[in-house]
Amino acid sequence: MRISHLSLAVAACGAAALAALVIYTVFMRWVVGQTPNWAEELPRLVLIWTALLGSVTCTYQRSHLNAGLLPLIVRSINVRRVINKATDIVLLVMLLVLAKAGWDLAVLTMSMTTTALKMPVGVIYLSVPVGCVGMALMQVQHVLSPGDSL
Question: Which GO molecular function annotations are given, in alphabetical order (predicted)?
Answer without folding.
Answer: transmembrane transporter activity
